[in-house]
Amino acid sequence: MHSRSNSTGIIDDTAISKARLVFITIMVFCKVKIDPVFNYLDSGALEIGMQHLFTTLGLAPPIFLQNEMKPNKDWFKPKGYLHLDDKITFDQRNLIQRKVSNVSFVGNHAFLPLLYKTVTQRKYKKIKQPNGIVRRSHTEIKNGKVIPTKKVRPIMYASHLDAQIYAYYANKVLGEKYEKLLKQTHALSNCICAYRKIPSDDGTKKKNNISFAHDAFQEIKRRGECAAIALDIESFFSSLDHVVLKHQWCQLLGKSILPKDHYNIFKSITRFHYININDFKTTHNGFDEAHIAELRKKGIHSFLESPKELQELIRTKQILVHKNQFVRKKEAVNVLVGIPQGLAISAMLANIYMYAFDKMIYEELVLKRGVFYRRYSDDIVLVCETDERNEVLSFVMDAIRGKETQLTISEKKTEVSTFKKEFVGKEERLQVYREETGTPRYNVPFVYLGFEFYGYQTLIKSANLAKYYRRLKDSIRRASRRADRKKERDLSDEKILFKTKLFRQLTFKGRKTRMLKIKRSKRIKDMFGNWQYIVEESPRKYRGNVFRYVYNAANEMNAPEIKRQYRNHWSIMEKTVNAYNFVNTKLNQEKKTS
Q1: What is the C-alpha to C-alpha distance for residues 367 and 190, in angstroms, rounded to an integer?
Q2: What is the spatial distance between Cα 60 and Cα 53, in angstroms, rounded to a whole number?
Q3: Mean pLDDT for each consecutive 10-residue tract of the chain (594 residues)?
Q4: Domain named Reverse transcriptase: which ranges (predicted)?
Q5: 268-284 burial string, b = 16+ CB within 10 Å, else e?
Q6: Residue 219 burial (CB < 10 Å; 0-12/13-18/19+)?
Q7: Among 89, 307, 456, 509, whose Cα sits 20 to 30 Å from the Cα of 413?
Q8: Is there a domain that residue 417 lies in?
């Protein structure tokens, strides 16, 4: 195939048309030999194939392929977790898509209870001692009792079919309408960051929290002396008012009432039921693996064999079904509020809920007063003139409490920082002051989206750095316990550390993306109709570890100091590894040979 290209590498329209025609022809005649993902053009398969075709023919991909036609992530994402129904596989896509896109099916669908579990996050809070000294601790004293400051985060997740309904409506129905609404005002679209696919300025990739934090910090640098305000909406998902949510949902659809399919989804997430996953555990604090294995032999990947089994467990009270317990006093009456966090549709509904608030802030503060405004889920950042900070803060507080939102800002997490240009030695630099109880504190960073901004430098949040080192030491400790068990099982005198995976997950050696060969078990039926498992190798894209994030942040923010934060990780890892008696570590090998 011959085509012309200019000096910029852009191929003319004729070549593009020919390439498209050739590719479609290949798709038609060779469809059975193409990976299943190419069966669905809406997932970007055509563009991926054309990229490959141009590369194979030695042609430079045109700009529309490089930028605008990069495929978005697909809504269809089968999950592997156990739930109350059987899991969905990739080859069921056509069947599932027909179901979830059928408004009659969705309108009459009976949603299963959610599964509930908690995730505990260790936290170090700043605690003020009786003597006035502030220290960091993971406990605090309340009413004479020592209380842990750990954060318990409730997680709820839907059954497999329900999750696909939520995902389809979040991406293909509500998501597309919400994006069209935002694009009517381009500058407003830039203000809402979370749960959206926002292209970078050069159009080569999607923005992430590094980009969003960098935008805010660059705005502060551009203004010089200014004020930055960071706010957090208190108990965001569990406080959403159902009347407000329903109203905003109708507004988005341009309807006075919700259609039957939308109303059924609305009911499922506002009047939700859930089962504690611990109810499926035995007295030995584990799942009934024998029962699960028996179900797998029958080709069922679930906690239960059928809906009848669930009904029987509920009837005999072996399993308790709980109702939505998020309540708030409204005119002296407790009313239900909130939606579960973690569902595929929760994030989209949160953005829809906040639309009126976002629009008000944009019109009153951004347009009229030149305030910089960004909202990332429940995290809000505003940059304004120093003498306007109190007025801006007061306006946002009143707006968030208004009838169109009915939420509150967490006063504990509210941060107001002022930036001033000062001389440090002979060099002038931008310096940050944190305003606390009316007294500015020198060099206390402005924290946003996991980064600490000092005006003259940007760092990873210190709590995230501490979390990394905790994870590093915990991983080595677990590896030691596994090695001890293997040593005992094999009647060996040597305690061996499997270093490759550990280094890939925890050190700079694992920062690059690459393909890994992973062995997976696959369930198939034999000639007698019995289920059996076969092991096959399947390549998987390894997406890098924390160091990929660190290097990306350092490069995008032009902040080499971020890399320096992790400069001691190798020596700390060696020290931790050598504290255990592994025979194949450098220090212990030297001891053995000496």
Answers
A1: 13
A2: 10
A3: 40 50 52 39 45 51 44 75 87 90 94 88 60 59 67 85 94 91 85 85 82 93 93 91 94 94 94 87 65 78 83 84 80 82 91 94 93 93 93 94 90 90 86 80 89 93 90 88 81 75 84 73 73 72 83 92 92 86 58 42
A4: 118-453
A5: bbbebebbebeebeeee
A6: middle
A7: 456
A8: no
